[in-house]
Amino acid sequence: xxxxxxxxxxxxxxxxxxxxxxxxxxxxxxxxxxxxxxxxxxxxxxxxxxxxxxxxxxxxxxxxxxxxxxxxxxxxxxxxxxxxxxxxxxxxxxxxxxxxxxxxxxxxxxxxxxxxxxxxxxxxxxxxxxxxxxxxxxxxxxxxxxxxxxxxxxxxxxxxxxxxxxxxxxxxxxxxxxxxxxxxxxxxxxxxxxxxxxxxxxxxxxxxxxxxxxxxxxxxxxxxxxxxxxxxxxxxxxxxxxxxxxxxxxxxxxxxxxxxxxxxxxxxxxxxxxxxxxxxxxxxxxxxxxxxxxxxxxxxxxxxxxxxxxxxxxxxxxxxxxxxxxxxxxxxxxxxxxxxxxxxxxxxxxxxxxxxxxxxxxxxxxxxxxxxxxxxxxxxxxxxxxxxxxxxxxxxxxxxxxxxxxxxxxxxxxxxxxxxxxxxxxxxxxxxxxxxxxxxxxxxxxxxxxxxxxxxxxxxxxxxxxxxxxxxxxxxxxxxxxxxxxxxxxxxxxxxxxxxxxxxxxxxxxxxxxxxxxxxxxxxxxxxxxxxxxxxxxxxxxxxxxxxxxxxxxxxxxxxxxxxxxxxxxxxxxxxxxxxxxxxxxxxxxxxxxxxxxxxxxxxxxxxxxxxxxxxxxxxxxxxxxxxxxxxxxxxxxxxxxxxxxxxxxxxxxxxxxxxxxxxxxxxxxxxxxxxxxxxxxxxxxxxxxxxxxxxxxxxxxxxxxxxxxxxxxxxxxxxxxxxxxxxxxxxxxxxxxxxxxxxxxxxxxxxxxxxxxxxxxxxxxxxxxxxxxxxxxxxxxxxxxxxxxxxxxxxxxxxxxxxxxxxxxxxxxxxxxxxxxxxxxxxxxxxxxxxxxxxxxxxxxxxxxxxxxxxxxxxxxxxxxxxxxxxxxxxxxxxxxxxxxxxxxxxxxxxxxxxxxxxxxxxxxxxxxxxxxxxxxxxxxxx
Length: 928
Fold this sequence. Notes:
Shape: globular
Oligomer: single chain
Radius of gyration: 30 Å
Number of helices: 11
Number of strands: 50
Distance between the termini: 37 Å
């Protein structure tokens, strides 16, 4: 099963959008969620009424309510629930055609007090109380951001939103780093189900594919509870998308961006077609379906077959020059909600997004050992996405159907000049590289109340597909000996006599299907006369991957200097092919192509216990059984089988010193499993890093014991001051290595013996009215997060790896992470200004081998500015963004003098160094 975009699917989506527009809107509306003050759990069946009328409703299975067709003006709402103090909220304003959000918290009544108690409150005060309670009552140590805060920010997608979450750092505008740990130690979840990696060669998820206006809430759990997947150590990023909107809307958005290095500059590339702007190749770069097999080519083709095969390969070797266009993005979103009889609701949200960017990395420096190269890299990138969520609530039940599709088309051209001392030659190198990636995910969920005691059951089924298609990656290298540099009769000549992965035409395709199901049961219980919650569940996920790759090349039958000195667009001319001057060759792919599948089954049980009035412990255990089977195309070359059963206990203890202060402590055990690519012996030549990348079939899963403590003070809703300490003990940590015992550098993976990570984290998010009590300061929020981290690693013994550094930090672990910002709202929230600063300390990227020392990533200071303006009676919003204003170099280097900083050539060797440019953009959106 593979997702396809076809006419019937488009007609279906259009039909849904059109039919959704008939949903009624009513005069005015009040809606929200009702939750328990101490536990934060939503309450089912709370009676909500407009005081003095017969208008009323009961909360649904998610604790939500919606009062519709209300006349404009101010109303008083009453809330009643068995075993809880009632509440009466005044000054709730209703506006025609608008939805007023009112979230409410209720407190359990004193069992000794038989008289009915009704708490009085106002709309403004209750809104603050609800947010405040949600912050305090999370079972685990976590940080998050709600849809209300996202709405007030100028963020475009989820990666932008993550920049505002404490302890999270975004790299390459899409990958997340938490507490200094790289993305391979984090996990991503969308609507309750784990997301597959969107990258072909590492465990990582591109968070820029989900539009921010469709996020209901985003939470990063930094400690584990038994109901979370076990494969994370830095954090579990949970994204919940909206299903039933608060009110009907249609939003159109348009944006454009300017990059100081790229926009308007000469942009070189291979052939470009109109379909590329829509995220698709026109099909002409793919291998023909009836192309000769590997065995046929290796065993030799006839002259006629050879010519036929070469003619069927793409033959456009021209380098086209255009002007790089500004970045452009468009978005269309429609949301519809219909309130039906008997407290039933039907909702739908459909969104389409489009983005195109043309970027240039000029003069990329690669100056180390025998290499002295300068690269120019041109990338044409199109990103298209669609989201379609549907939900139906009836009685105390809810059914949702959520779908997301994203497609990325990255077409890169690289031009290299420089010298290679090892071959005593000057070099001209060209690479045409297209990568098409897509992600499709579909989830069906159900939530139901059981009986009358607020017990709940929820279930889900999901399917996802990841596709990585790399058709016809072409690489050609021209060289000329130093001794011939002054000879006018000797020109640069192409290497057409030998075939290696450095100069082949690569055709690869990765397809992964994933199926997941889960069921969770929650039931309130009384333990030691205190309300507690019992929760248990089962989960299962099956992944099935197929990776196929072919390495083809065109070799001269007889060496001919005149042919080898031809310019690139004439090097493989049709007259040469027709005259059988070239022979088609192939490197057998028996160990490079592979198939893999894995099955993860999990069961858990947990208790949320109240101990007295101030203490709470959430504890339990998760059992995960993992089975993996991976085979090379020729199974005798490599077969990997893994089967683990892990018991993973966790306990999160919270003690409330006061209503505003929490003390937290936690212990939990987690895992890090190797990805398919990390286990496969498949070898891939990275022409940018000038090295091979290859998996290690002997990799084992890592187990991590974690401990956290935290002090947190909540001055008021939306504000926090906290200090945290954490310790992580890794067994068999998965790391990357320069394996260079032979003559060629290979970047591979290994298990270090033991690793320890410990650190402290400081966080503050506070309005500045404590300095000067005026409106300006009340509308100004300063936030900062500082993590200081130390890691130590014990290298494995008797592995034959010959590791140079005995005393080193863990791969990917930064010694410090700094996030800081200033946010100000003015003119009644019509303007919103944000200034963001980020810095990640020097990190070890690759462990040292025999010849090549460790690769380090140099720190960068990053400053972003954002200004949002509401216009056209608050229906329109104009956003200005300035990104990476300092435009410091991105650097990977060998620290030859070991002084822990980058000194540049000739002191330190440079693996890569470049400036991406400053980004200036403007976007406008309008909501009908």
